[in-house]
Amino acid sequence: MTGTLVLVLSLSLLIGLSLGLLGGGGSILTVPILVYVAGFGAKEAIASSLFVVGVTSAVSVIGHARNGRVRWKTGLIFGAAGMAGAFAGGLLGSRIPSMVLMIAFALMMIATSIAMLRGRRNVDPDKAYSDLPLLRILADGALVGLVTGLVGAGGGFLVVPALALLGGMPMALAVGTSLVVIAMKSFAGLAGYLTTVQIDWSMTLAVTAMAIIGSLIGARLVGRIPEAALRKAFGWFVLAMGGFVLVQEILGM
């Protein structure tokens, strides 16, 4: 058990590093770590991942906000819509068979990895950011929240591109603002799951602590590591992990 705990906590650093550097990817790592290393059930792992990523994102926001990389108005509006969708997703996910959830999670990992490998749209950093498309923000926020609440994944790597496209938000602002959105909808999704699912708080809190440390390290590394190269390397890793999860669940049918 001690060896397993050390491995889980060591891998948890990667959760925070991903959030700190890329503004997403936390749940993509958390759920497989909790299921295949810590031995959690699928629903318990998804619920726990929402707590881990929610707290870690909230802490990560502080550093980005200090450096002026958070658009609070957009983040709060997007996050509020995301909370409604995430709570509904959490309620629904807690009542869906675990195998179905894990297969959906694996497909989300594969879709996320493809999006990462394709890259992001370049946005002119000098482009003025104004006239928020409110209805588009609400619609996108609710949809992303629903997906996140349902399978506990797809947060940052759906939110960041959406924010970058809404009115031409520069990527640095999109990453910082996405953490506000991720925190808000993660807690809403968790609330939905906790209506029927109980989690191991001791392990969850330990994983959260390590993820926070990783996020602080990641925040310090922003700008020092080429984002495009890092994203592609992580994309291939997520693709491999998604394939692994999919095969495990299909073989277990």
Can you characterise this structure?
With 253 residues, the protein is mainly α. The chain is built from ten helices and no strands. The chain has helices spanning 2-22, 26-37, 42-66, 72-93, 98-118, 134-151, 156-165, 171-193, 201-221, 227-251. Helix 2 (26-37) runs antiparallel to helix 3 and helix 7 (156-165) packs across helix 8 (171-193). It starts with a helix and ends with a helix. Mean pLDDT is 82; it is low at 125-129. The chain crosses the membrane at residues 46-63, 75-93, 99-117, 137-165, 171-194, 201-221, 233-251. It comes from Arthrobacter koreensis.
Helix content: over 70%
**What oligomerization state is this entry in?**
single chain
- Largest sheet properties: none
Low-confidence stretches: 125-129
State the helix count: 10
Number of strands: 0
Radius of gyration: 17 Å
Short description:
The protein has 253 residues and is mostly helical. The protein contains ten helices and no strands. The protein has helices at residues 2-22, 26-37, 42-66, 72-93, 98-118, 134-151, 156-165, 171-193, 201-221, 227-251.
What's the arrangement of secondary structure elements?
Blueprint: H1 2-22, H2 26-37, H3 42-66, H4 72-93, H5 98-118, H6 134-151, H7 156-165, H8 171-193, H9 201-221, H10 227-251
